[in-house]
Amino acid sequence: MNKFKYLLEPRSIAVVGVSDEPGRPGSQAVRALLKYGYAGRIFPVNPKYAEFEGMTCYPSVEAINEPIDLVIIGVPAKGVVSVMEMCAAKSVSYVVVLSGGFRESGPEGVERERQLLEIARKSGIRLIGPNCLGFASIHSNVYAAFGSITREPRLTPGSVSLVTQSGGFGYSIALSCAEAGVGFRHVIATGNETDVDTVEFIDSLIDDERTSCIVAYIEGTRDGRRLLEVGRRALAAGKPILLWKGGITEQGARAAESHTASMTGTYDFYKAMYKQTGIVEISELHEVVDYVKALAPGKYPQSNGVAVMGVSGGSAIVFADAGEPRGLSLCELTEVTQQRLAPVVPNIGAIHNPIDLTAGYFSEQNKEKLEVALRAVLEDENVGSLCVNLATTGAAGSAVAAEVIGRVSRDYPKPVVIFSSTPAASNSEALAVFAADKVPVLPSPSRAANAIAMLLKYRTTRECHLDQSNNRLDELGGRAYQLPSILQAGNVLSEAESKDVLADVGVPITKDILLNIGEMPNFFGLTFPLVVKIVSRDIPHKSEIGGVKVGLRTAEAVEAAIKEVTSNARRLAPKATLDGVLVSEMVSGGYELIAGVVNDEVFGPVVMVGAGGIYAEILKDVTFRLAPFDVRTATEMLDELKCRPIFDGARGGAVLDVNSAARALASLSQFAWASRDVVQEIDINPMFLSAMGVIAADALVVPKSLVKAEQAPCPRPDSEAALAEN
Amino acid sequence: MNKFKYLLEPRSIAVVGVSDEPGRPGSQAVRALLKYGYAGRIFPVNPKYAEFEGMTCYPSVEAINEPIDLVIIGVPAKGVVSVMEMCAAKSVSYVVVLSGGFRESGPEGVERERQLLEIARKSGIRLIGPNCLGFASIHSNVYAAFGSITREPRLTPGSVSLVTQSGGFGYSIALSCAEAGVGFRHVIATGNETDVDTVEFIDSLIDDERTSCIVAYIEGTRDGRRLLEVGRRALAAGKPILLWKGGITEQGARAAESHTASMTGTYDFYKAMYKQTGIVEISELHEVVDYVKALAPGKYPQSNGVAVMGVSGGSAIVFADAGEPRGLSLCELTEVTQQRLAPVVPNIGAIHNPIDLTAGYFSEQNKEKLEVALRAVLEDENVGSLCVNLATTGAAGSAVAAEVIGRVSRDYPKPVVIFSSTPAASNSEALAVFAADKVPVLPSPSRAANAIAMLLKYRTTRECHLDQSNNRLDELGGRAYQLPSILQAGNVLSEAESKDVLADVGVPITKDILLNIGEMPNFFGLTFPLVVKIVSRDIPHKSEIGGVKVGLRTAEAVEAAIKEVTSNARRLAPKATLDGVLVSEMVSGGYELIAGVVNDEVFGPVVMVGAGGIYAEILKDVTFRLAPFDVRTATEMLDELKCRPIFDGARGGAVLDVNSAARALASLSQFAWASRDVVQEIDINPMFLSAMGVIAADALVVPKSLVKAEQAPCPRPDSEAALAEN
């Protein structure tokens, strides 16, 4: 947190643009700082005023003869650049520009924003905004903000930090959480993100000891790869990130474009990143609330087995309905557990899972019994977590339950989640006890199930992506591939050249002979039937010009086919340079997959695998991961496909060699990473998976064109270096 | 509502089983009646007491010399039957048994419950429960209930009626709604449903003028067909039913079984029923709240075009993200609308959809502008509904917005939904105005989108299923099919017989010749290639014993195949009676579908269609509808399939004759309905769909066995008749 310490906890703040005019952002900031009791020095700035809110008002930033950690700028857009220049002259470290009128408002604004960035880069100022609501550090009463952030109800201090690109909607997240009793540490709205962006803030908050959980709303990021790294760092640190990505649909992305002109990026790649980092995806306000509550105790289920216990059978059913599709299982209880439960559960109840304590159970006279029941269940090895359904239990019963559950749960590392629908207003005693013991209380059994499923998924991802085999990934990904010189040229590769590259990488390819034009094969080593294809860098779609002949069973047929594809190509693609003819063994049987790599502007190389043929297009049975990754992650990808049961021999088919496919994907991903500066795209279609292994039957490697390289985003500043200059 | 008028609004109530022992259900009921001001007469019953709560306490029901509309029984289970007998002797119309200890508690309880039902049937008493929380009629202060229903906070009167099988969880629904300001009319927990069940209550509530919307939670129903009819009646009446079905997963169903021993039924068939009746499926507590609010104004979108307007760009993006997968579209605004918006929206805002009013817009000085903007949008022909995002707008701005939006929205038939995240406690003025004008306020943009999507779907279903073509369905379904006599016998049909039945019904079948054993064909009229199959009622799986030969291109090959399948059958199924050999034209090309009928215990005949082959099993690309239905519904089914784009010629394939498939399915459904007493199952697999039409290549019709007929549920009482006797 050092990097932004004196931004978020400044010892002094100058606020440029205060006035008595109602609603001015600067004035709002000063009033909030005063109202909420900011302990540092405040320097209001406006040449027209001698005094503001009882404090000396300075004519300019220059005129302040004291050290200033943070300058808040709230003057109209056209005046912002000159104030920024003064901040640079004064060696200010941090500037928040609340004012709008920049990139979002046309060419003049774009130019203004460029100037702001230029000054920031030259001077080392770290700039937040422009066009942002600002930020608040609740624990230290810093309100470098205006609008809703400064209004009542005030947030209470806590350990959740929120970073949001959209001020208005982002603060809705904070308000929803606050209404459910969640406390905050930092709430930061980043606006246009000219310099510091959401990802950089998330990164720095991982190191903030007092932040236990980071919630973020973004519409896009320039650098998805950095988000991946930040996500991995957070996972290693055990600090969950809850990320709401706006603009995941076509219409949403269009709306985002007109909103912040953000590059929304491909949702599929975000989803891949979530899987690889344990970043928890959010798409509802109450999900943030539920997940923040569920994460607070820092307890994670060690298995998908859940015990459900309570006074409402219907609630248990609803829990089961919501839990099953999310991978939770109402586990069997051991014999021992059932024996322990028998004396403390009424006869008309149930001692199997879900445990029916029967209506009215939560009462003073059942306290000891409840404790026995809870301990029995929490000590059951099959039980990974517990949901207790209080349902409509009244205030008195709920208070008893809270006291016992809160106390007992402290002794166990397993998550305990409560469903209660008793109105909060009449249930304050129980809710206070649960809150003190960090036992999350959720308002529906389905939301309790979702929250437990989230905890389970987070733990599983953490285990999987932090283990030995994944740590070796850097090594694998970074290994010095001897990149084929053919890739350096930037030309399109032919099928034969593409397959050579892949074979070299470790992706099995069909057995081929490449003939010169006019040459006839000797078939040495090839097994019939064969396929004949024209080879030309200028003909990417060979079939369309009659450049492919399949199922050739005799030497004569092959020779005839070679002549035919050559003459077809000459006739239908007269301008194409023909590089030769490829004679390949024909793959028969096996399941048709597609695989590939896209070198994305935001995320860098991403690997795809999916069901091939018509189903690829119609069912979109495909999955993605950011390269590089290992065989375990590749296996995860294959396991996700809807067609997965076919690999295991569904309907009496052969069992396919999934491992060979996983190895090929992992190799492909590592090559994609190593070659990211020169390769734009790799398509393997079809890739056949059989009992014998995986084999690429056709492939195309597309190098990065020189044009694309020029369009690459300008390099980001080295912010550490910039800071060091201060 | 006449049927249950004096149950739900009784003029006098006897309560059997009152005592000073704490927590007795009967005592709780009496105290609730007194506390909440029930205006009718109350007769407490307990032979040990002379007085209870200051009223005369009667030794028995018989001893009460006044007319009694309703008897509430709360005595322990073993005493319930004799009280019930006294009620019968006294010609009581309605009895609510709160006591547990019946079907849910073992054989003795089953017998007790049987006796209760017997008395009810003989006497004409309508029985609610046993093992239920009872009911409350909020507007008339009737509390025939105990437990949470009688506890504070008291529900406020309103027009939503709730019927629930599970008392505990059902009342959680009521509490969640109440917390959001929703008022109730009747809240009914049905428990074991020995006599009156949820479906019958829903049915009667359709006719309750003061009930505008019915919410129900069920775990199962004995008679899904009746639920279908009730749903259709509610749709015709324009009275939405929100149904939460517990036990839709395997684990949920298992939990339900142990809870109320309900027959949970097949979730796929429930989903079909929702589509055919407009019953709104619920799976979250807040969905009930949101939907009840959204339905209250009785306004439905006439198109999927939504305009989004507000002060938070992020909220509009989140709305779009949630709306798109649910079929909503952020529509283009007309030129005229944009011209009208231009003068009333700030320059830095946006006059296209989503309309950005810019931060701080909702204020006293913008009132007139806001009105112009609202009218412009609501008068746009592309706009079917409007969402206004107040987001974090403060109390003052929200109050202004509420006044204008509430007033303007009254003039338009289009739904207007508000998203506000301002805490309710500090926003009471705005919320009261919105409530008075029935403008639903939802706590997230995604929930606003879901609510609008629900309204759209309800309207679409209503239009589709109430129109002319569907009204003719009864006629179609009820037409006097000449049921083939072969079905009456109850024997398994061979493929040839099954296909004959289907051809007769109107499902195209492959061209066949049925030969006797030993006979050779003359091929008259058949086009090669052909298929040869053994025909025997005793061999349902022909392929397994070598009884099928395909791709036969010559007369010689066919003759050899006939000999081979016959000898294979004789050798491998020596006990089977061979009925002959079927020679069929082989279907080549076309897309492989499966279709069929299941005559379900709960729902009666249900028709299925889906993608065939391995994908049927793995991708479960199938859909269902309850028979009978028309071509339009059949088309809807085909449109739902994931493989649907293939029918339109995806990837350059032929355009398939979808209409012929729809006609075949509609015919199949009408036959399934007409033959429901004799046909148990129909399987058509494969059914090929090509550009030439649809054709059943293999089929099996399974008659209802005599055994099954005996197991059919006993007939339900004619409740109207029973009532007439009173």
Give structural notes.
- Two copies of one chain form a homodimer.
- With 726 residues, chain A is of the alpha/beta class.
- Chain A has five domains: 1-131, NAD(P)-binding Rossmann-like Domain (Rossmann fold), CATH 3.40.50; 155-296, Succinyl-CoA synthetase domains (Rossmann fold); 297-465, Rossmann fold; 472-510 and 587-726, 2-Layer Sandwich (D-amino Acid Aminotransferase, Chain A, domain 1); 511-585, Dna Ligase, domain 1, CATH 3.30.1490.20.
- Chain A is 39% helix and 21% strand.
- Chain A contains 27 helices and 30 strands.
- Chain A has a seven-stranded mixed beta sheet with strand order 9-8-11-10-12-13-14, sandwiched between helices.
- Chain A is flat.
- Chains A and B meet through helix 5, helix 8, helix 11, strand 16 and helix 16 of A and helix 5, helix 8, helix 11, strand 16 and helix 16 of B.
